[in-house]
Amino acid sequence: MSSTPEFDVSEFAEHTRQMQATMARTRERIESLQATGDDGTGLVTATVGGDGRIAALRIDPSVIDPIHPTALSDLVVAATNNAIDALRELHAESIIAVTDQIGGLLDGLGNGLLGEQGEDPGWPEGRQ
User: Fold this and answer.
1) Cα–Cα–Cα angle for 78, 84, 89, rounded to 5 degrees
2) How far apart are CA 128 and CA 113, in angstroms?
3) Cα angle vertex 81, ends 87, 70, to 5°?
4) Which of 61, 58, 40 is CA-nearest to residue 48?
5) Mind listing the pLDDT tens digit of every residue in the chain (128 residues)?
6) CB 29 within 8 A of CB 91
7) Exposed e or buried b per residue across 66-84, where buried means at least 16 C-beta atoms within 10 angstroms of its C-beta
8) What whole-number distance in Å separates Cα of residue 26 and Cα of residue 107?
Protein backbone atom coordinates (compact mmCIF):
# COMPACT_ATOMS: atom_id res chain seq x y z
CA MET A 1 0.00 0.00 0.00
CA SER A 2 1.25 3.43 -0.88
CA SER A 3 1.07 6.36 1.52
CA THR A 4 1.05 8.75 -1.43
CA PRO A 5 -2.35 10.47 -1.76
CA GLU A 6 -4.42 9.78 -4.87
CA PHE A 7 -4.92 12.60 -7.35
CA ASP A 8 -8.61 12.96 -8.22
CA VAL A 9 -8.84 14.19 -11.82
CA SER A 10 -12.60 14.77 -11.64
CA GLU A 11 -12.18 16.87 -8.49
CA PHE A 12 -9.44 18.86 -10.19
CA ALA A 13 -11.67 19.43 -13.24
CA GLU A 14 -14.55 20.59 -11.01
CA HIS A 15 -12.28 23.03 -9.16
CA THR A 16 -11.03 24.33 -12.51
CA ARG A 17 -14.61 24.88 -13.73
CA GLN A 18 -15.47 26.69 -10.49
CA MET A 19 -12.42 28.97 -10.82
CA GLN A 20 -13.27 29.76 -14.45
CA ALA A 21 -16.87 30.58 -13.52
CA THR A 22 -15.70 32.80 -10.66
CA MET A 23 -13.31 34.65 -12.95
CA ALA A 24 -15.99 35.11 -15.63
CA ARG A 25 -18.45 36.52 -13.07
CA THR A 26 -15.76 38.87 -11.77
CA ARG A 27 -14.88 40.07 -15.28
CA GLU A 28 -18.57 40.80 -15.96
CA ARG A 29 -18.88 42.63 -12.64
CA ILE A 30 -15.79 44.75 -13.33
CA GLU A 31 -17.08 45.65 -16.80
CA SER A 32 -20.41 46.76 -15.31
CA LEU A 33 -18.86 48.95 -12.61
CA GLN A 34 -19.18 52.71 -12.65
CA ALA A 35 -17.46 55.22 -10.40
CA THR A 36 -18.08 58.93 -10.03
CA GLY A 37 -15.63 61.58 -8.95
CA ASP A 38 -15.79 65.31 -8.61
CA ASP A 39 -13.43 68.25 -8.71
CA GLY A 40 -13.51 68.75 -4.95
CA THR A 41 -16.22 71.40 -5.08
CA GLY A 42 -18.97 69.34 -6.70
CA LEU A 43 -19.23 71.75 -9.61
CA VAL A 44 -17.87 69.18 -12.07
CA THR A 45 -18.53 65.45 -11.80
CA ALA A 46 -17.33 62.67 -14.04
CA THR A 47 -18.55 59.09 -14.20
CA VAL A 48 -16.22 56.42 -15.54
CA GLY A 49 -17.33 52.97 -16.66
CA GLY A 50 -15.63 49.68 -15.86
CA ASP A 51 -13.81 49.87 -19.17
CA GLY A 52 -12.13 53.12 -18.06
CA ARG A 53 -14.04 55.32 -20.51
CA ILE A 54 -15.94 58.42 -19.42
CA ALA A 55 -19.63 57.56 -19.26
CA ALA A 56 -20.92 60.96 -18.13
CA LEU A 57 -19.68 64.45 -17.39
CA ARG A 58 -21.70 67.08 -15.53
CA ILE A 59 -20.55 70.70 -15.48
CA ASP A 60 -22.27 73.35 -13.39
CA PRO A 61 -22.90 76.33 -15.73
CA SER A 62 -21.41 78.71 -13.16
CA VAL A 63 -17.89 77.43 -13.92
CA ILE A 64 -18.10 78.04 -17.65
CA ASP A 65 -16.00 81.15 -18.15
CA PRO A 66 -14.89 81.82 -21.74
CA ILE A 67 -12.20 84.19 -20.47
CA HIS A 68 -10.54 81.49 -18.32
CA PRO A 69 -11.12 78.17 -20.11
CA THR A 70 -8.19 76.51 -18.33
CA ALA A 71 -10.03 76.77 -15.01
CA LEU A 72 -12.82 74.59 -16.40
CA SER A 73 -10.38 72.13 -17.94
CA ASP A 74 -8.59 71.83 -14.59
CA LEU A 75 -11.90 71.01 -12.89
CA VAL A 76 -12.76 68.42 -15.56
CA VAL A 77 -9.34 66.80 -15.23
CA ALA A 78 -9.65 66.69 -11.42
CA ALA A 79 -13.14 65.18 -11.55
CA THR A 80 -12.12 62.61 -14.15
CA ASN A 81 -8.98 61.60 -12.26
CA ASN A 82 -10.98 61.21 -9.04
CA ALA A 83 -13.50 59.01 -10.86
CA ILE A 84 -10.69 56.88 -12.29
CA ASP A 85 -9.13 56.53 -8.82
CA ALA A 86 -12.51 55.44 -7.43
CA LEU A 87 -12.87 52.92 -10.26
CA ARG A 88 -9.40 51.51 -9.54
CA GLU A 89 -10.44 50.98 -5.92
CA LEU A 90 -13.56 49.12 -7.07
CA HIS A 91 -11.43 47.01 -9.41
CA ALA A 92 -9.02 46.20 -6.57
CA GLU A 93 -11.90 45.18 -4.31
CA SER A 94 -13.26 42.92 -7.05
CA ILE A 95 -9.85 41.35 -7.64
CA ILE A 96 -9.38 40.71 -3.91
CA ALA A 97 -12.80 39.08 -3.74
CA VAL A 98 -12.06 36.75 -6.65
CA THR A 99 -8.59 35.83 -5.40
CA ASP A 100 -10.08 34.98 -2.02
CA GLN A 101 -12.65 32.75 -3.74
CA ILE A 102 -10.00 31.11 -5.90
CA GLY A 103 -7.80 30.66 -2.84
CA GLY A 104 -10.63 28.79 -1.16
CA LEU A 105 -11.07 26.60 -4.21
CA LEU A 106 -7.34 25.92 -4.31
CA ASP A 107 -7.35 25.08 -0.61
CA GLY A 108 -10.08 22.55 -1.28
CA LEU A 109 -8.10 21.16 -4.18
CA GLY A 110 -4.91 21.09 -2.09
CA ASN A 111 -6.69 19.08 0.58
CA GLY A 112 -7.64 16.58 -2.08
CA LEU A 113 -4.07 16.46 -3.39
CA LEU A 114 -2.51 16.27 0.06
CA GLY A 115 -4.93 13.77 1.50
CA GLU A 116 -6.78 13.96 4.77
CA GLN A 117 -3.66 14.38 6.94
CA GLY A 118 -2.10 17.04 4.69
CA GLU A 119 0.90 14.95 3.66
CA ASP A 120 3.46 16.63 1.42
CA PRO A 121 3.02 15.29 -2.14
CA GLY A 122 6.74 15.72 -2.75
CA TRP A 123 6.62 18.81 -4.95
CA PRO A 124 9.93 20.53 -5.67
CA GLU A 125 10.96 23.49 -3.52
CA GLY A 126 8.86 26.58 -4.28
CA ARG A 127 5.91 24.66 -5.77
CA GLN A 128 4.02 24.02 -2.54
Assistant:
1) 125
2) 11
3) 155
4) 58
5) 555 567 677 877 887 888 888 888 888 888 888 999 999 999 999 999 988 899 999 999 999 999 999 999 999 999 999 999 999 998 888 888 778 777 776 676 666 554 444 444 444 444 33
6) no
7) eeeeeebeebbebbbebbb
8) 20
